[in-house]
Amino acid sequence: MCTIFFLGHTLGTILAIYLVLSPCAVIAIIYLTWFYAFDLDISRQGGRRFEFFRYLKTWHFFRDYFPIKLIRTKRLDPKRNYVFGYHPHGIMCIGAWLNFATEATGFSQLFPGIKPYLLTLTLMFKFPFFRDFVMAGGVCEVSKESVEHVLSREGTGNAAVIVIGGAAESLDARPGSHKLTLKNRKGFVKYALKHGASLVPVYSFGENELYCQMDNPEGSWLRSLQKKLQRMLSFAPPVFFGRGLLPGSLGFLPHKRSVCTVVGAPVIVKRVVPNPSQKEIDRLHKKYITGLINLFQQHKHRYGIPKETRLIIQ
Predict the structure, then answer these.
(1) What is the pTM of this model?
(2) Where does the UniProt entry say this protein principally localizes (predicted)?
(3) Assuming Cys at both sites, which of 63, 95, 196, 234 could form a disulfide with 272, CB separation 3.0 to 4.6 Å?
């Protein structure tokens, strides 16, 4: 399963080339023509989700491997729309996928009437087959058009789930780290104000424990190279490793560590602000950070995090 997330774009491209050169060439060409000529925009117009895909038993095996749990602290009103801020990014956002793109952890039972849309890089929707796979779980682009579609054109009871720290935050994903890229990330706050959507902080305890990463402190040659590649490719390639197939071996399987994703209390946005000022954005951003810090402080002791540990927001 992790191979699909790590190499899905490559595997999808190879499969497309293979089919074009195979006896199924006509079908493959029709699919690729439809994809690139007529269907590219669907990923920013709500995507193409399939509920049967979200409920596949396969996700239960994936969930139990770690295991992964989703915890609700407050009920959410389905008559409102929401922007969920997911933290931390980790290496592969495994907790985000299992909790919000599948029903393995019971999202719909915990939050009845709320439909989650996990948003990710636009680049992920340029690869054949892979883009259909992720969209089946309700995943869409994290573009302006996509966010505004979820928050306005789809009615109410929708949740745009955004991994706020993005590629930059993945470079700090390692066991024991609670460092977030959030201080200057305010676009999601602006969307919330423009559409009257409430902000919901989400912290996934254990996400950073799933993989180890080569040391890359600020100023190092590796960090500099990663930042340069991030500017070129729109994502940062962390140098990471997990466990192998054999006991004690290294590989790219995630470690078997418990992940508990805690959904905090919403920061209510009481009215629509069509053109929010910077002051209004900053004020709501500050409230969101306060809510996220409180969430971390209130729950960290349950997951073996030392009392003196604090979130580092940069």
Answers:
(1) 0.93
(2) endoplasmic reticulum
(3) 196
